[in-house]
Amino acid sequence: MAKDDQEKPRTHKWVRRDGVVRRPAREPQAIRARVPGGAGVASDELASAIRASLAGWPIIILRVVGHAPRAARMGRHPGRWIRTQLGVVIDEGLGAGLGDRCTDPKTPAYRLLGRHGIGPKPDGEAWSPLVLRAAGVEEGEHPPGSPVTFELVLAGRDATSEAAALVGSLYDPPEAFALEVSTVQALLLDEDGEPRWRKLPAEPTDIPHVALDLLTEPRVRSGRMVLNFASATPMARQGEEGLVNAQFGLVVDRMCRSFGAWMGRTGHKGPRMPVDDILRAAAAVETVNDTTRQVEIPVRLLAAEGVHTDERVPALLGAATYRGDFVGMAPLFRAAFWLGMGPGRQHGLGQVTFR
Questions:
Q1: Which of 148, 174, 199 finishes a domain?
Q2: Count of domains forming the chain
Q3: In a shared domain, residues 240 and 311
Q4: How many other C-beta atoms lie within 10 A of the C-beta of residue 185?
Q5: pLDDT by residue (tens digit) across 191-242?
Q6: Alpha carbon of residue 100 to chain centroid
Q7: DSSP letter for each residue of 272-324
Q8: What is the pTM of this model?
Q9: How many helices (H) and strands (E) does the chain have?
Q10: Planar angle of CA 251, 59, 201, nearest 5 degrees
Q11: Residue 235 and residue 343 in one domain
Q12: Which domain holds residue 319?
């Protein structure tokens, strides 16, 4: 080797590796809600602001009581079976236009369900004007004559304008409808705000709206509350990665986002919900016990357009107990009790209770 070569500095020798470089997998992190800065407001001021945002929102709540004359099998999400039967009543009984998807805003089916697929496996918008409350219907085999009771919430002027026609179609459904309806009831408020159910005739002329700002609020123990996810409740936003959990700030954040999106889609013109103040109040709440579990639901139950994939999204079932000051957020809990939270509520998802 030449002398000049020996005096040259040594350099790193790079070796090409054809194998795949493996990096350690990152541990998934729990999804958290952002807490805005600034000072909070008094509980009574917060409650008044939430009531003001809910006031004037056209809402009709119906209870349907009937039975299945033939044997029926409810899957893991019974609301999906009931939603299929509602599709028969609405799409065939009231009219959904031509084709295999309802996309005409002038049709009664669009005003009640938004854009949706027609058929035995319906899909639909994440923020449909119709909410199905069916957590009381058990999954599994139902023999002939089994009772079936569920509730429907119609939001916005378009959906509530079709309420009387929907009641008439439930009493006199198309032949393919797999239920026999004995009674349809409407929720009314008495003078002290307590809800009462009133039986509706087969051809009702007037179905009153429910004033959410006047409903009595959930009775919770001072400083302690149990939240029960009665049906699978999606918690992750579209494209959001991480572990879903029942951390109180995240739950309240998802409630607020649900109402904001739903109010916008149904044309509610009231004041905006005080989201920042709600999240500040929620940040002070402590989780005492969490017995929720994660389940997976088909993405087609949440899609705005027809999706036919096997993809599934995480959701929560079960209960969690919290400690803190809930007085200011009570109107929000009252609305969430009746309307639910998260997308996919036309399929019975997102039903929650408080005690």
A1: 199
A2: 2
A3: yes
A4: 17
A5: 777 889 999 999 998 898 998 888 877 666 668 999 999 999 988 877 777 7
A6: 25
A7: PP-HHHHHHHHHT-EEEEE--EEEEEEGGGT-SS------EEEEEEEEEEEES
A8: 0.86
A9: 9, 14
A10: 130
A11: yes
A12: 43-56+216-354
